[in-house]
């Protein structure tokens, strides 16, 4: 409920309470006088609707000041009333205002928190979920399959190819860990600034470790090593370029290039998110 409406309810409820005690017309005249509270409530509602913490805090301070001034005015006027009315004083009004201020304070404080996938938005989440490398069987096989440590020329294990695969597997694991952050955190509440920080870090980790400095670069290095091990034997190289291993390599390259486009777009989108 908007705070302007809450204030109307507080005022209506309290007016009904003090009517039973027959306050003077002078008192009611002051009670119905413009207080600045309603306008402050409207400003607060507008600021919260914009999710502007700075404007919300400013409006809350204005509301608190207007409320304190109004209560002081009512206290002074009610000093001249009957003892029964003096007992009521401004207790009911004060409680209502204090409750409203506390609620607004908590709501403003809550602006610092948000749900992981809501803060990042559907564009980023859908692109991350559409990345190919986490589910691509060829990417996984290149990181683990013994055939990718074997020289096509000698049909024996190549230490150089084995090292390339090991490096590839390390980059692959970093990417998987970064990707899992999006699924692990989905639906979780945390500081919005932390969401942007973690989101940026994980997207950039995936971009770096899957790109030309990561998995994509390593499959090119693997191709160059296989070519090197043919020792310039064109018939062997021609066969290698038609082999299943090389077709898998091309498939992985296509998948990672498509992922790079999605990650680039996600990083660009994240940079536009303002808290």
Description of the structure:
This protein is mainly α. It has 2 domains: 3-113; 130-270. Helix content is 75%, strand content 2%. The chain is built from 13 helices and 2 strands. It has helices at residues 3-19, 25-31, 37-49, 53-78, 83-88, 91-109, 116-129, 137-144, 159-184, 192-210, 215-229, 234-241, 244-270, and strands at residues 113-115, 189-191. It has a two-stranded antiparallel ribbon. Helix 1 (3-19) runs antiparallel to helix 3 (37-49), helix 1 (3-19) runs antiparallel to helix 6 (91-109) and helix 8 (137-144) crosses helix 9. The protein is rod-shaped. It starts with a helix and ends in a 5-residue tail after the last helix. The mean pLDDT is 87.
Q: How is this fold's topology laid out?
A:
Elements: H1 3-19, H2 25-31, H3 37-49, H4 53-78, H5 83-88, H6 91-109, E1 113-115, H7 116-129, H8 137-144, H9 159-184, E2 189-191, H10 192-210, H11 215-229, H12 234-241, H13 244-270
Antiparallel strand pairs: 1-2
Helix pairs in contact: 1-3, 1-6, 2-4, 3-4, 4-6, 7-13, 8-9, 9-10, 9-11, 10-13, 11-13
């Amino acid at each position: 409920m908007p705070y302007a409406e809450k204030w109307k309810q507080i005022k209506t409820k309290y007016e009904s309470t003090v009517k039973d005690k027959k306050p003077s017309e002078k008192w009611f005249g002051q009670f119905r006088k413009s207080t600045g509270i309603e306008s402050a409530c409207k400003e607060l509602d507008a600021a919260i609707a914009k999710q502007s913490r700075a404007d919300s805090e400013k409006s809350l301070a204005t509301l608190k000041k207007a409320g304190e001034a109004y209560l002081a005015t009512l206290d002074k006027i009610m000093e001249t009333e009957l003892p029964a009315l003096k007992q009521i004083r401004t207790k009911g009004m004060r409680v209502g205002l204090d409750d409203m201020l506390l609620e607004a304070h908590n709501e403003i404080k809550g602006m610092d928190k948000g749900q992981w996938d809501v803060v990042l938005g559907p564009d980023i989440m859908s692109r991350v979920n559409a990345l190919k490398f986490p589910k691509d069987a060829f990417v996984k096989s290149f990181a683990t399959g013994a055939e990718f440590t074997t020289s096509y020329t000698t049909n024996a294990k190549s230490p150089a190819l084995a090292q390339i695969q090991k490096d590839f597997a390390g980059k692959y694991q970093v990417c998987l860990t970064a990707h899992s952050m999006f699924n692990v955190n989905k639906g979780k509440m945390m500081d919005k600034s932390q969401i942007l920080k973690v989101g940026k870090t994980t997207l950039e980790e995936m971009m770096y470790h899957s790109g030309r400095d990561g998995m994509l670069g390593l499959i090119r290095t693997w191709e160059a090593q296989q070519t090197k091990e043919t020792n310039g034997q064109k018939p062997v190289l021609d066969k290698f370029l038609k082999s299943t291993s090389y077709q898998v390599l091309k498939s992985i390259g296509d998948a990672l290039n498509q992922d790079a486009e999605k990650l680039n777009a996600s990083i660009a989108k994240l940079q536009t998110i303002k808290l």
